[in-house]
Design a protein that fits this description.
316 residues; mainly alpha; Ribonucleotide Reductase, subunit A; 72% helix; stearoyl-[ACP] desaturase activity
């Protein structure tokens, strides 16, 4: 089997960037704070459910969360639940040896806490229907996870650079929207993990831009223009995402202003002078896409404000 130029580039990058991975891994370990999921769960509120323990069945009145916060927490948890699929995808790209393998396992171990604390909180506080939640988890995980761009190192690293930041924003805003100080503190703690993960991938991608600017620029544009959150295969995701967007928890404006633009600015993609050919073409495509996304975000915001005004008028 012949080796394609893309395969050779990927092999070369994995070799050449390992010192960067080791440096970023050490930086991450020096900054990451140990924390314990059980300390963020109000266990004293817990009581038995119906079933073998013959406790009290769940009903919607038991939840103190708004519909919007509840939907967002369900999406966040089901997304975190699919960690085995994400681990397989990232281990396939980065491998299991050296600093790459150490990072993959460390990242997986940190991410695993997120689903643990979210499920414990939601179950103990009776925030969501636990039966519906478990059925949704089974369906979502059985559907599996496949990265949109296969086992491409550049595409995969570009994706997680944006996705980790998007998740951080979503988690923080979900906590704020919950109206529950316990939930807000928990989501802020999870978001802090996601931020450190984003910095690792963002810095790794910056090194890739230096090593292979044109191919890396193409990967960035491909990922930005086709970006989907990792939980997009959740049953009812589109409906839930509309609820979340209308609540201002995560919408096009946040995606453009708080996720894409900060990362792209950090990489200096529009200031680079080392692009040519397809790399330059990819940057032009990216600029055009961002303009379209900005316009779409403004349109959505305008319509949302009009809907809110109409709703307020009806209540008045």
């Amino acid at each position: 089997m012949s080796v394609t130029p893309e395969d050779k580039l990927q092999t070369d990058l994995l070799h050449d960037l390992e010192p960067v991975v080791e440096k970023e891994l050490n930086r991450h370990l020096s900054m990451a704070k140990e924390w314990f999921p059980h300390q963020y769960v109000p266990w004293s509120e817990g009581r038995d459910y119906d079933g073998p323990l013959d406790g009290e069945p769940w009903s919607i009145e038991q939840s103190r969360l708004s519909h919007e916060a509840r939907e967002s927490l369900i999406v966040n948890l089901l997304t975190e639940d699919n960690l085995p699929g994400y681990h397989r995808a990232i281990a396939t790209v980065y491998g299991r040896d050296g600093a790459w393998g150490t990072w993959v396992n460390r990242w997986t171990a940190e991410e695993d806490r997120h689903a643990t604390v979210l499920r414990d909180y939601l179950t103990v506080t009776r925030a969501v229907d636990p039966v519906a939640l478990e059925r949704a988890r089974m369906r979502h995980m059985q559907a599996g996870y496949e990265a949109d761009h296969g086992d491409s190192f550049l595409h995969g690293t570009a994706y997680v650079s944006f996705q980790e930041l998007a998740t951080r924003v979503s988690h923080r805003n979900t906590g704020s929207a919950s109206g529950d100080p316990v939930c807000e503190q928990m989501m802020a703690r999870i978001a802090a993990d996601e931020n450190l993960h984003m910095i690792f991938y963002r810095n790794l991608m910056a090194a890739a831009l230096e090593a292979a600017p044109n191919a890396t620029m193409r990967a960035i544009t491909d990922v930005v223009t086709t970006f989907q959150m990792p939980g997009h295969s959740i049953d009812g995701f589109l409906r839930k995402s509309v609820v979340i967007a209308n609540a201002g928890i995560y919408d096009l404006r946040l995606h453009h202003d708080d996720v894409l633009i900060p990362v792209l600015r950090k990489w200096g993609v529009f200031d680079r002078t080392d692009l040519s050919g397809d790399g330059e073409k990819a940057r032009e495509e990216l600029g055009e896409f961002l303009e379209q996304l900005d316009a779409a975000a403004t349109k959505f915001e305008t319509r949302r404000e009009e809907r809110r005004a109409r709703q307020a008028a009806k209540k008045g």
